[in-house]
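User: Okay, second chain of the day. Same drill as before: sequence in, structure tokens out.
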Amino acid sequence: MDRLGRAAVDLLSRDGFAGLTVRRVAAEAGVGAATAYTYFSSKEHLVAEVFWRRLAGSPEVAHESGDPAARVTEVLGHISLLVADEPEFAGAVTTALLGRDPDVEVLRQRIGHDIRERLSDALGPAVDPDVIDALEMLYSGALVRAGMGYTSYQEIAQKLEKSARLMLGCLSVRAE
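Assistant: Same drill. Structure tokens below.
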């Protein structure tokens, strides 16, 4: 699976998402197409899995700041930077996660849960769940904007910080 993932990222950087197929990835990885299809039902599934593995394998951000917006920015910036140096892969992740493939749906749920947990850890137990929802929407919208080419993935971290500060300045944290 690791070879298939590396081959997919390499093919994406050369040929873009339109040129990506599971068969081509299998050939690039030196694996039979039937084997690749055993693991991945579609190119969307493959791309989503590669992103999920990166996210799940990335360390939790240490929350040393007393500033909630800084902690949120660290989390969201860290996740954004998982793809920042690979614009073709980043765009493919956005496209893949927006698809309707049932295998992608499972990964989308895992990714969403992981991001929600990281945000919750950054803000602590007293945060209003609506704040987490709003931050998730902020992040999702930022990724779509970057995927559409409106902004770079490098710029996302700066925009996320500004937006998180605006949101957290207007939204309160509940005292338990």
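Confidence is low (pLDDT under 50) at residues 172-176.

User: Thanks, on to the next one.
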